[in-house]
Amino acid sequence: SQTFKVDANLFNDGLCLESVRLSFASKPQDTGGVVALQIRPVDDNGSPRRNFVVPFSEKTLTPSEVTTTGLTDFTFESPVYLGPGTYAISVLTNDSEYTLNTTGAPSPNSPLERMFVARNDGQRTVYSDTSLVCTLVRHSFTVDNTARISRNIQVFGNNDGQSLLIEAHIF
């Protein structure tokens, strides 16, 4: 699990998460097991909660949907609301052929914090100097004065958001 913070100074009302993009180093053949991603709140000690998943924040992919040449997109069925606070990206699989790319410690202005790796004894090893290679994609809504609703997808730390304009009919 990789913890990350929804900073109240930047997102005082929270945010809606569109997807999480992960970098895989390896994956099984197309007949291998699935891999799931969940967003979990953290407990008072900063560890991901074991038995609680944020509503609508679970996505499962088959090996054919996972790439090892770029980022794999785990897009949720609907935007996932996260209030200000700390959460964890938890990746689960029973197939040992899945491996994720990691990098050094997160930069000071990154929303990423600590990484937790499960051990066979039921405990977790905590890494503060390592983080997953990942991108969190925020879903935001804006309304302008012509009654058009804009759907903006913005990537944390990037300025390459995409926009889709949807006409709203007001009766």
Structure commentary:
By secondary structure, the chain is mainly β. It has strands at 2-6, 15-22, 24-26, 35-41, 58-61, 72-82, 85-93, 99-100, 102-103, 112-118, 124-127, 131-132, 134-143, 148-155, 162-167. A six-stranded antiparallel sheet has the order 5-4-7-1-10-11, with no helix packed on it. β13 (134-143) and β14 form a beta hairpin. The chain is globular.
Task: Determine the N-to-C terminus distance.
Answer: 47 Å
In round numbers, the mean pLDDT is: 84
Q: Would you report the number of β strands? A: 15
Radius of gyration: 17 Å
Secondary structural class: mainly beta
H/I helix tally? 0
**Strand residue content:** over 45%
Q: What best-fitting shape do the alpha-carbon axes yield?
A: globular
Largest sheet: 6 strands, antiparallel
The helix fraction, in percent, is: under 10%
The topology string of helices and strands comes to EEEEEEEEEEEEEEE
The strand line-up of the biggest sheet is 5-4-7-1-10-11
Residue ranges: pLDDT <50 for 5 or more in a row? 157-171
Provide a short characterization of the protein structure:
By secondary structure, the protein is mainly beta.
Keywords:
171 residues, mainly beta, six-stranded antiparallel beta sheet, five-stranded antiparallel beta sheet, 15 strands, globular, disordered C terminus
Task: Set out the fold topology.
Blueprint: E1 2-6, E2 15-22, E3 24-26, E4 35-41, E5 58-61, E6 72-82, E7 85-93, E8 99-100, E9 102-103, E10 112-118, E11 124-127, E12 131-132, E13 134-143, E14 148-155, E15 162-167
Antiparallel strand pairs: 1-7, 1-10, 2-6, 2-13, 3-8, 4-5, 4-7, 9-12, 10-11, 13-14, 14-15
